[in-house]
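Example record used in the benchmark description.
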Amino acid sequence: MAGIGLQVGSEGELLALDRDPPGVEADHYACVIPGLVNAHSHLDLPRLDSKPRGGFVDWIRAVIRKRTSIGAETLEELVIGNLQQLIASGCTCIGDVDTTGLTQGALSVLGVEGRAYREVLGFDLDPAGAERLLASKELGPKDGISPHAPYSVSPALFQAAQRTGRPLMIHCSETVEELEFLQQGRGPLRDLLQGIGRWDSSFEAPTCSAVAWLDRLSCLGPDTMLIHVQELVYGDLEILARTHSPVVICPGTIHYFQREAPRVSEMWEAGLTLALGTDSLSSNEGLDLFGEMQRLHLQVPEFDPANILLMATSMGGRALGFPQAGRLVPGARFDALGFREAPEGGPGALSEWICAARPRPDARFLHGRDGCKGELGANPAL
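Model output (structure tokens):
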């Protein structure tokens, strides 16, 4: 088996990467791949005590109850612990929906590249209320904004978030209940809003899909990631392609709710930027992007595993606005995973193995540091 040789600078940047270099023993790393990019997480959401028996709206109610029962100290431990779990599983770049203001600091402390998208909600907010809410968030220079979803955010709040010019992350087209709400202005999501006192009696249903609604509000574009996009309707793909809006698929959440397989083949053929996310422990059995790749491979077996690996690496970085993340680029920070054993047969065999076997990396390099050994040395030969 051939080896991989690389040179890493003293600042943790990749200097060179070579296949089977002179002097590298064959029993060293058989392959090195870019660190994984988790484009959508909720680090501050805990595991539910049990799965709600009802539908999506009952699940939302359960998440609200669980989340509000957590104290500040426990919440901070949850964010740090979940982030450490993602790093240990091979993630080196993360996009997180942040309700606490803790994520960006945690990313910095642990040396992880990524972005916190500060969550905002308010279906009943007018333009003045939307501006006050955004001002109250005290956004840092790298923070994005996550206007939660079309059923929980008013048009005024969507437009105020878009005017900031910051990257956006929006849950979109996730359920048939969302489609019913936007097309007819009724259903369990309206009941939920009325029950929590956030219904806007002046709201008129736009009678369109969530994708079309966000397009009308001028919220789509390369800097707006759309999460889930499970319920595509006629015309949505054309809008997504025209606006170059990235889409993040969360296979674990699809499995949790027993939804149909995502239409990734159609999205890929339409030229969309597709990424992968773990979502949260409230709707997933764990936080492991290798598990998400395996799950998507099982859900859509005809979809090329090489594309799935791209979704978990370079496409995720592109979607988050970190074009060098998920890539092995000379001069960029060296975030990578090393495997001592790997199949022969080239990139196709490697992608199939990663997606089907869910292998565990033998080394996790975060900005040049081997997380398995706690070492950072200049110019190591692997």
